[in-house]
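Journal club prep, shared notes

We agreed each person brings one worked example of a sequence with its structure written out as tokens. Mine is BPS1-like protein. I'm keeping it raw so we can talk through how to read the token line rather than staring at a rendered picture. Sequence first:
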Amino acid sequence: MSHPQDPHRAFFPFGNPFRMILPKGLYLSHKLLALLNAFEDTLAERIRKLKPIDREDVLSLSWMRLAMESLCETHNDIKVLITALELPVCDWDEKWIDVYLDNSVKLLDICIAFSSELSRLNQGHLLLQCVLHNLNSPSPKQFVRARASLDSWRQHINSKNPRLENCFATLDNLTTTLNLPKVKNSAKGKVLMRAMYGVKVVTLFVCSIFASAFSGSAKRLMDLQVLETCSWAEAFTELQAFVNGGIRNMVSSGRVMVLRELEAVDITVKKLYPMIQDGVGPVEAEAFQISISDMGKRTEKLSQGLDVLAKEVDSFFQIVLSGRDALLCNFRVGSETSNVEEQQVSR
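Then the structure, token by token:
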């Protein structure tokens, strides 16, 4: 695992991941090849659509929503592919199942961490609402109360979420499973493992961006090196370079790495705070009201964006959870069927 202070982290460190999963001489039928090509073409198109026009849009809640929405669709695609492959769970290698179940638990933990951070950020909305309420109040103590609420908001926003720190260790651990177990004489298994590789690469990339954005640090961004023979590899490499490069350039220029909508609110807070502290004279009255109006609009935009993104993260959580439950259920059914057949043969 790379050290936290390293500016770049390159993966895959274990060599060619398909040396293990693409046995020589294993024939793919036209049907299986068509399924794999369709899956990878769709994945490539989704990756291309994630490239923002402006690099700074990456740290916006709207782009993050699109990224999580795309991730949900990709994970749904792998479910559809598994069904189309008609590969019973009982035919899965035990190592595949172990890796899948272990990875799904880690993804669920990451989702919980992201949800907790979105909830924490949204809690600050109440403090800002108190500020707006007090500033629109005729009470002589309005400035004192508003200033106290702003101080509380700043303290709240600048506090750290310990769950986010755990995300980076989890993501590092997940990269080690990109080198999947060997596929033993199974063409369908070959297709499944290759498709899962693409899903895991995109999942790691998106979750890395989220964890870095929420923590406010670009030091832990991942730079994944992917197999060039995948049809989506070029689109992914271009997206990753554009996104990670943009974030690092922003940080190197001296800007604090925060969500754009949160930064917009903070700008209005910094304008309002000295006015509240020193008082507002007749000359500053108009500028003061404009700042209050701006903060109200930006606060509402931030809150709405957090709510929408939280719903997408919850959707991803449910998709991962349902996929895990379905696998376990099918595995139990397959095991029970095998046991019944063995008992009938023994009689």
